Amino acid sequence: MQCNNMTDDDDMRREIKNLFVRTDMILSRFRCCSINVKLTLFKTYCLSLYDTALWKNFSATVYRKLKSAFNKCIKKMFGYTRRDSMTSVFFDLSLPTLDTVVHNSRILFANQSLRSCNKIVQWFLTIRVY
Q1: Which of 10, 23, 24, 27 has a 20 to 30 Å separation from 75 between CA atoms?
Q2: Domain boundaries along the sequence of the chain
């Protein structure tokens, strides 16, 4: 469904669904693999969120749902229980939090845009949209 309400909520909801689908697919195929294999697969398929760098207008509710989905998928993927602390989970697995993934994506996109030689990209960098 196409919606032109000028928010990124629909993109984030799509990523929530995709995150659960990818996690379930990886688990169904690689359940018996080692933690290192699961970590590599999770980093490859679940940390690359589409359009993250461009998200600007979204509701806090949808972002919290995405963050919750991200945490649930990590716990499910690596066998942690509901009561386990996410801080210790991220520390044990050396995984970034969702906030870190989004922040790094924005910084990388901004740096790549600034280094671009494309005239159209350079023009977009000069305009300010409020």
Answers
A1: 10
A2: 9-126
